[in-house]
Structures are given as structure tokens and as C-alpha cells.
């Protein structure tokens, strides 16, 4: 259960304050697949970074399973990101000199899994998202965009997070591959009972999610 | 996969760049090692020279060098002052004189030669009959000298000393080829004869000869490595003082200081108590002068060590700053997926350490190879000029006072570059400092990178 109350974020740049998020309220139930749509500059990325504990809100609260992450210390925020959040980025953001397998193992290491269990778990996760054993040993540069996004989904799932935050997960893929990635995320939210919050431009995709929030000028409009 | 292995893996991520960094680092580490070797070798040599220089201080009357110059001999009061100076353990006093043909029945064993003839060209017929010490006093009454200049004759040097061993040229005891030594503190009419003079005059132990109208008995024959000394006579100080009618006068005092640390203090106190009446020279001071060029090599080498350390640290620092800036996005991603500052910094420090360690291994090997030749060329280049000036001071009329110093002069160039474990350890320690400085600043950069940046990038 994700409950966002009165979330406001202002950035102070030279002389004037810019309000990126203005009194945002939203609730996403556990296992729901929700989408956030909005034009660029509407505050989507800011909202996502607040939800992912990458940044601290100016005011308001973000409760994940009854814990207010807006009030966590920097160290706790890092631990929260490692264990409770899975990120899927538009440009995948895999570590370039690590293999697909090592990228997933890295997330397991940060999540605190014992060393000897990591490799088996990573192989299983990659197999689940459709990466073959020989592809698992390749570096990201030797994988296609769709394959890289699958690896990043496997990485996001690694520590059984409470929420997966996806920033334009299909934005860098052709429509056919994008659909496959969307289907993967959708089925995972069902099978793993994971809450997924995806930021997207794609109205087709947004239309297929359980709920859609529309952001305009830092406010929820629908 | 952990922090360490990721760091090592990242260090070799771009072989060409890593190679360039390692090469630059290796050069500076190699320079550090060879400079450390040069410094410690030179310092060891300086200590050796200083410790062998001895603690002797030579005090001679102002204006006198050997038999040249003028001025008054040191008096017994001054000698007493020297003896009572703190830290002076023992003294040996010397009064030198020269015997002309009328003073003795001995024939000089030294040939006059063109040099000797020139030295005596000022002496007139009237003064040639007197002893040297009275020359200056008589010179005013010899204005009526005729132009007939007598054929110059070589003189025989008489050294009156409290310690016959002080005449030795090599710093050790005087070598007697036959007979026994004399008691320097007595006033007996006995003498030690130089081997050349003894041969020339067929003197053996027990023979007698006439000097200053007295009959002197030969107690022993000595041999030194110096032809001038071997043509001379050694007698007890008091005997020479009495015979030449110079009671209490001495022409040179060698004072031994109790320990080498006190030499310069003693020289200072002697200079203040004797004033401008005496010239004071210590072996330690002379040694210090002759090692001054070595000391400048040592400080040059130290500057080299510091310079190379700074260069090495700057190389690692710039390389790491460059790498961190380049991987800014990657660091943001690692933080976003839950990597702590400590883990990210640990990974980059490992990377810096890996580069430094490889650079250090190559550099130390390089340093071991070049430190010997480098030390030698540093020492021989700067010594070629100073060693000639050092040897000059051992010659001249004052030569007998500077014995032992020539040895030091020739040894100065023989510095052996030795790579001791201590030097090696300090080189490794300095390299470690380079790595720490080189990764501390990038670590600060890393800590400041905010994970939120990954959402806005690209």
C-alpha cells in the first residue's frame, strides 16, 4: 500500500522558487499496476524521485506499508532503496562493465543477500524475464535494448521490492518490444503481487494499467 | 563480485588509459626510490666522513703557516688557556725550528732545488748564521748587508713536540724502523731522526750529533710517507724550547676534544679566549666543508623525493577525478539501486590503489635499476670540481697540519648506492600516501553525487 499525502516539492533556483509538485495526493494498493502520465515538465520525474527516496520532499508524507519514507535519514533511504524499491529506467542504466548476471548480483549484494545464494537467485531471475544462460554472461553492450530492459527488470525484482518504479520503461524501445516489456511488467505485478508505478507518454500503455494518474503543472488532474 | 573485485576490474576497464596512468606513476615512483637511495647513500657517506674526521683541533699562531709568515709563537699562558678549556681531553704542543749549516754538524738530506733556493733568496749573509726564529728581529740591523749573496743551503727541520706520534702523517702512531721513541715531556738531549737524514749522515741508534752547540743522542729512526718529514729531527718540546731560547713558546697545538659533538663549541670558546692571536682549525670543520657538496646532493635528492611524490599524487588525483566525472551517471545508478557511499567510495579507492600498486611495482623495479647509476652520476658530477679544491688544501707549507684530510677528500667520490630495506619501505610508504591523497578528493566528489540525477540524465 502506497499512500502519498499533500506532497509538495519546491526547488529554489536563483531568486525564485519553482514548485515542481503541488499538494499531490494519491493511493496505490499493493499489487496494483498504476501509471502516471503527463507532459514533460509536469513533475513526473520529481514525483518518481520522491517515491524512490532519491530526493526529500519539501512537505507532505509518503507512506509505504505504513513507513513514512520522507522522514528517513540518508542512510536509511539508501537501505530503503536497496530493499523496498526496484527501479526500471528508460535507458536501462545497467553497469556497462558488468555482465547481465553481475548486474543482478550487484543489486542482490546491496539488498543484503548472502554471497553464496546470489548467483543462483540471479540466474533464476534472468531466466524468468527470458534471458538465456549464454546471454546472462554478456555485457550490456552485447544485448539488444529489449534484452537490456529485461535485465534491468530482473535487477529491479531482485530483492522482492514493495514497489517497482518505472521511468518510461518502453520509451526507448520499438512498439513491439515495448509491448512485450509492458506485458512482462504486467504479469509480474500479478504473479509477484508487486505494486508497479510507471511513468509513461504512451496512452496505449497507460490505458491498459489498473489506474492512471494525470499530472499537470505539479498537480494531479484526474 | 564485491567492492574489491569491482574496483580491480574497473581499474583495467580501459587498458590504454590505465597503461598511461600506470606508466606516469611508475616514472614518479621510480624517481622517488632512486632519489631516496641517493639521499640515504650520500647521508651515510657524510656520517662516515664526519665520524672518521676525528676530534682534533689545530691551533697555530696567527699569520704562521708552516715556516712561512710571521708573528709570535703561542706562549705558555695561551697553552695553559687551551688546556683548561672545557671538553679538551689532551693536547700535544709542537715548536718547529730549522737548523742551518752553522747550527749543526749534520748535512741536510733534502736537495735545495729551485724551489728551496727561491724560498731562501731574502736571507742575507748575516742572518744565515742565525736561527730562523730570530730572523725577523735581526732584519732591522742588517741594512748594511753587502750585495754578496751566499749560496743557499737547505735547512734541517727540528720539531719539538710533547707527542712524537703527532708527527705521523697517516694519523696513526709514528713508525720507528729501529730504536725506541722519546719522552716528549722530558727535556733530555735525545732525538728521533728521519730515515733519510739518518742515511745521509750514517746515524744509528746511539749515535750523537751536534746541534745548537749541544751533543744530542739518537734514540730511534722513524719513517713516514713524507720525504719532508723523513729529513727532519724530532726532539722533546722542552729541549727545543731551551736550545732555541724560546721558553714556553709553541708554534702549533693539536688539542683533542672529548667527543665529536663538542668540537664546534670548543672551537668557538677557543676563538673567544685566544682572540686574534691564533688560527684555529678543526678536522671536523674541514670535513664539514668537504662534505658540503654531498650535503647539497642530499638536499637535492630530498627535493626530488618531494617533487616526485607531489607529481605522483597529482597524477593519481587527476586520473581519479577524470574517472569519477566520467562515471558520474554510473555512480548515481549504483546509489539509486541501493549502493551506499561507503561501497561506492571503497570501489573507487580500490581502483586507485590497483593503479597505484601496479605503477609502484613497475616503478620500484625501474628505481632499483636506475638508482645505482643515478647516485653515481649525481655524486661524481658534483664532486669532480670540489675534490680538486679539497686536495689543494692538503698541499702547501701548512701540509703537515692537515694530514689525514687528503684521505677524506679522495674517499668522497666513492659513494656506493645501497638499497636498504628502510629505503625500500619508505618508498612504499610514500607511494601509499600518493594513493590516499589521490583517492581522498575523488571520494569527496563521489559522496556529493545525488542519485536523483539518474532520472534526469540523457
Keywords:
heterodimer; A: 222 residues; alpha/beta; Rossmann fold; 6-stranded mixed beta sheet; 4-stranded antiparallel beta sheet; 8 helices; 10 strands; globular; B: 458 residues; alpha+beta; 2 domains; 10-stranded mixed beta sheet; two-stranded antiparallel ribbon; rod-shaped
Brief digest:
Chain A has 222 residues and is of the alpha/beta class. Chain A is 38% helix and 27% strand. Chain A has a domain at 32-45 and 80-220: P-loop containing nucleotide triphosphate hydrolases (Rossmann fold).
CATH architecture annotation name of the domain at 32-45 and 80-220 in chain A: 3-Layer(aba) Sandwich
Strand content of chain A: 25-35%
Which sheet architecture does the biggest sheet of chain B show? 10 strands, mixed
> What does the average pLDDT of chain A come to?
88
The N- and C-terminal alpha carbons of chain B lie at a distance of 28 Å
Order of helices and strands of chain B: HHEEEHEHHEEEHEEHEHEHEHHHHHHH
Amino acid at each position: 500500500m502506497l499512500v502519498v499525502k499533500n506532497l509538495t516539492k519546491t526547488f529554489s533556483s536563483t531568486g525564485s522558487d519553482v514548485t515542481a509538485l503541488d499538494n499531490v495526493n494519491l493511493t496505490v494498493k499493493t499489487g496494483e499496476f498504476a501509471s502516471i502520465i503527463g507532459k514533460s515538465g509536469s513533475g513526473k520525474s520529481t514525483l518518481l524521485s520522491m517515491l524512490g527516496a532519491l530526493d526529500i520532499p519539501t512537505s507532505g508524507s509518503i507512506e509505504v506499508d505504513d513507513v513514512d519514507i520522507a522522514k528517513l535519514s540518508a542512510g536509511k533511504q539508501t537501505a530503503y532503496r536497496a530493499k523496498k524499491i526496484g527501479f526500471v529506467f528508460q535507458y536501462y542504466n545497467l553497469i556497462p562493465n558488468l555482465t547481465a548476471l553481475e548486474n543482478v548480483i550487484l543489486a542482490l549484494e546491496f539488498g543484503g543477500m548472502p554471497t553464496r545464494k546470489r548467483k543462483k537467485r540471479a540466474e533464476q531471475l534472468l531466466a524468468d524475464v527470458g534471458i538465456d544462460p549464454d546471454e546472462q554472461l554478456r555485457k550490456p553492450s552485447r544485448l539488444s535494448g529489449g534484452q537490456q530492459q529485461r535485465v534491468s527488470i530482473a535487477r529491479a525484482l531482485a530483492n522482492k521490492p514493495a514497489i517497482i518504479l518505472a521511468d518510461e520503461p518502453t520509451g526507448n524501445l520499438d512498439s513491439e518490444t515495448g509491448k512485450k516489456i509492458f506485458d512482462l511488467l504486467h504479469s509480474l505485478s500479478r504473479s509477484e503481487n508487486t505494486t508497479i508505478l510507471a511513468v509513461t507518454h504512451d496512452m496505449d500503455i497507460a490505458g491498459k494499467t489498473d489506474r492512471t494518474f494525470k499530472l499537470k503543472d505539479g498537480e494531479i488532474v484526474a | 563480485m564485491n567492492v574489491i573485485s569491482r574496483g580491480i576490474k574497473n581499474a583495467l576497464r580501459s587498458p590504454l588509459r590505465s597503461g598511461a596512468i600506470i606508466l606516469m606513476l611508475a616514472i614518479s615512483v621510480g624517481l622517488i626510490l632512486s632519489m631516496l637511495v641517493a639521499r640515504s647513500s650520500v647521508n651515510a657517506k657524510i656520517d662516515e666522513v664526519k665520524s672518521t674526521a676525528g676530534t682534533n683541533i689545530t691551533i697555530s699562531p696567527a699569520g704562521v703557516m708552516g715556516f712561512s709568515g710571521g708573528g709570535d709563537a703561542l706562549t705558555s699562558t695561551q697553552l695553559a688557556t687551551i688546556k683548561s678549556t672545557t671538553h679538551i681531553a689532551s693536547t700535544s704542543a709542537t715548536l718547529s725550528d730549522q737548523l742551518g749549516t752553522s747550527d749543526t754538524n749534520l748535512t741536510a738530506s733534502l736537495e735545495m732545488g729551485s724551489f728551496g733556493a727561491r724560498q731562501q733568496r731574502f736571507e742575507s749573509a748575516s742572518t744565515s748564521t742565525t736561527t730562523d726564529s730570530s730572523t725577523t728581529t735581526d732584519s732591522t740591523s742588517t741594512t748594511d748587508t753587502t750585495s754578496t749573496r751566499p749560496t743557499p743551503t737547505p735547512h734541517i727541520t727540528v720539531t719539538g713536540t710533547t707527542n712524537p706520534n703527532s708527527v705521523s702523517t697517516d694519523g696513526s702512531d709514528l713508525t720507528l724502523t729501529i730504536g725506541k721513541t722519546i719522552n716528549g715531556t722530558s727535556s733530555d738531549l735525545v732525538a728521533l731522526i728521519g730515515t733519510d737524514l739518518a742515511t745521509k749522515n750514517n746515524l744509528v741508534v746511539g749515535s750523537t750529533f751536534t746541534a745548537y752547540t749541544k751533543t744530542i743522542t739518537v734514540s730511534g729512526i722513524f719513517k713516514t710517507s713524507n720525504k719532508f718529514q723523513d729529513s727532519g729531527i724530532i726532539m722533546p718540546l722542552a729541549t727545543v724550547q731551551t736550545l732555541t731560547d724560546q721558553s714556553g713558546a709553541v708554534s702549533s697545538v693539536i688539542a683533542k676534544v672529548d667527543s665529536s659533538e663538542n668540537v664546534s663549541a670548543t672551537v668557538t670558546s677557543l676563538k673567544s679566549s685566544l682572540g686574534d692571536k691564533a688560527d684555529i682549525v678543526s678536522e671536523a670543520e674541514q670535513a664539514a666543508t668537504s662534505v658540503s657538496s654531498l650535503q647539497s646532493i642530499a638536499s637535492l635528492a630530498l627535493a626530488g623525493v618531494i617533487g616526485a611524490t607531489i607529481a605522483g599524487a597529482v597524477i593519481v588525483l587527476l586520473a581519479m577525478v577524470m574517472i569519477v566525472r566520467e562515471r558520474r551517471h554510473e555512480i548515481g545508478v549504483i546509489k539509486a539501486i541501493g549502493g551506499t557511499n561507503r561501497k561506492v567510495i571503497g570501489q573507487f579507492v580500490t581502483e586507485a590503489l590497483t593503479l597505484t600498486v601496479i605503477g609502484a611495482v613497475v616503478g620500484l623495479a625501474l628505481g632499483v635499476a636506475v638508482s645505482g647509476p643515478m647516485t653515481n652520476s649525481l655524486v661524481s658530477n658534483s664532486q669532480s670540481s670540489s675534490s680538486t679544491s679539497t686536495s689543494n688544501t692538503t698541499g702547501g707549507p701548512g701540509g703537515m697540519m692537515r694530514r689525514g684530510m687528503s684521505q677524506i677528500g679522495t674517499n668522497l667520490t666513492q659513494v656506493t648506492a645501497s638499497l636498504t630495506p628502510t629505503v625500500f619501505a619508505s618508498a612504499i610508504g610514500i607511494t601509499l600516501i600518493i594513493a590516499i591523497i589521490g583517492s581522498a578528493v575523488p571520494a569527496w566528489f563521489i559522496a556529493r553525487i545525488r542519485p536523483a540525477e539518474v532520472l534526469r540524465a540523457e
